[in-house]
Amino acid sequence: MNLKWNLSRQVSLLALALSLGAQVHAQSEQGATPGQNLSALRATELRTDKLGSAPVLLNLAPGAMLRLVSLEGGWALVEASAPTAKAGAKVSGWVRASAVDWKSSSSAASHLASGREAAGNTALTLGVRSLPPRINRHALIIGIGRYADSAVPQLPGTRSDRESATQMAQAMQVPTSNIRYLQDDQATGANIRQALQDLTDRVQDGDRVFIHYSGHGTRYNDPKVGGCTEALLAYDGGQSTGMSGYITNREMADMLKTITNRTDKLFVMYDACYSGGVAQASSATRTRGLTNVNDEGALRAKFSGTTEECGRPVNVKTRNLVVEATASGALPQDIVHISASRDNEISFDDELKGGLATQYVRDCMLRDAKDLDGSGAITMDEIRQCAQEKIDKRMLNDANFKPNHLVLNGNAAFVPAWFAQANAVTVDPVILAAPVAHASAPAIVATKPPVEPPALTGEQALHQMFDQRDAKRRVQVTLGKDKLKIGQDALDLSVQSDRAGYVYVALAGSDNKSVYMLFPNDLDQDNKIDAGQKLLLPRPSWRVKAGGPVGTDSLLVMVSDAPRDLSALAANKAGPFVTSLNDTQGRASLGALMSTGKAVSSSSCSSVAARKNSSLCSDAYGAAIVAVQETK
Asked: Among 516, 617, 488, which residue's Cα sits nearest to residue 560?
């Protein structure tokens, strides 16, 4: 069948449902959806954060009316009526999910004006917040708040960091059974090294790994490298202990080398600081907490003892984890490393809520980050920008310190958790009442009208999916012609991959209205490719001829380890081709689908042995992107 390639035509499409067979795990169990009206099952507290130690905003009586905003890690973010505030005002806060009656009908709380129902307000339209746990995701969470060396200052907030890091891991689809914790005296240098070895033994090709460290960082003179070296301080690290309690970036990179070579993505977060320059200017910061005027939690510097010559970062070359890993042969595309501060700064631990970096990266990843480019997904760089704004606000007008700055290295375009935020740029809190000094006073907020993000071109939409590729999987695409005459020339390309897999070809036209899944399609479902095989597309049964308009069309060719289930997009068709609108929801849906292998959740992938012997248990894909010019 000779199909005309006509990119200018309008295609009537149904909006994608965003479920893709994957509703929010906690929400599907509860039968709850964002925006649902609920009630308090029993007397409970509405808190400022999803931590049992967070200040109480309101005491809620049994039956109190609530509006669900989000479910995260056993907590529910809800809106409740402020008893003493003006009509229509609301208080946002956190309650334990177990304290909510999930069977409340929408009419039960119909009097609670919220979101689009409240006069003059525009609420965030929430889509799929996260996807179900996947057996090929892993996490190691390390938190050290007290040390064997009594001279090392304590960091009580690391207990909260454990809970926050768990919520981030769950958002990244790590099942509870695949999360390992090392806390305080468990986190000795030897135990951390063994935990990394155990992780290496579990991780299989195409898996994804999240490592979170919260504790002290340090810098010391290392004769082996001829200068100062940054390190993480294990429980048994310190001036009075041996070097086994110091884990340098170079050693960490060496221990992670096998994992890096296997994983689709390795995401590492250090909530620690390395420099003593600022800390030494006020030694009291290492012995007691400082109260910031913007919050009740006392702040403690996350930096401990160092040799004098390395105390100040003058003329010191910083070597972050990505630099060390790349020097060992890793590809920066496949690594994400976020640090709590620059090399000449200290970062802070809030003794009530945990590290500023951890709590704000958590909030931005799970809820608050804005989709700045309207791409349909939240990247690590957008998460970093969101978290930095929160740090800046927290440290505003502090008498002693300036804000620390998050540092992101590696793949800044990485999307850690696919979820739709159709109006993610619309929420901008506005204070309706003057701020009060007492932290337990309710914060009354409304929202500003939506601000539309800049339009994303088709090429940019495909590049977002391209940026999620596993760079270790090599895909080569060769065009028969890179310029096609409209109405005359047909598309012709060849695909080669260094690994066997399944080929998917997406096309974004210059009209920027739709993304087409050209292959596989209703006429040709045979998309298997062998390693080294040259696959010629399109096949004779579905030739595609250039049909205009004049301009540049982008082709993204993906070769995934495991097949994808395109049936979730079957209702959206343009002839034999599956299509997805080139809008926020369409891109989010397509991105979530292409990042999810069809068989990973099946029983055949339930054990390490099974996953070791089957590429079908991988979510990874390689990709290449090419441009085609249509001319008259």
From this structure: 617
Place of tokens 């579905």: 542
DSSP structure string for 97-115: GGGEETT--TTTTTT---G
- Residues 6+ positions from 605 with CB-CB distance below 8 Å: 135, 136, 599, 611, 614, 616, 617
For residue 295, give Cα distances in angstroms to 34, 228, 450: 29, 35, 29
Domains of the chain are 24-128+426-453 (2.30.30.40), 137-353 (3.40.50.1460), 456-631 (2.60.40.2550)
Instruction: Note whether 557 and 624 are within 8 A (CB).
Output: yes
| 599-624 tens-digit pLDDT | 776 667 877 777 777 778 899 999 99
User: How many Cβ atoms are within 10 Å of 224's Cβ, its own excluded?
Assistant: 8
The partner residues of 447 in beta bridges, in order of sequence, read: 429
Residue ranges of alpha helices (H) inside 495-582 are none
Is residue 225 within 8 A of residue 177, CB to CB? The reply is: no
Among 78, 59, 64, 70, which residue's Cα sits nearest to residue 111? 64
Would you state the pLDDT for residue 598?
77
3-state class (DSSP) for residue 394: helix
Percent helix, percent strand, percent coil in the chain, to nearest 5: 25, 30, 50
Tally Cβ neighbours within 10 Å of residue 438: 7
> Which residues sit opposite 412 in a β-bridge?
none
What is the reported pLDDT for 69? 85
The structure's pTM equals 0.77
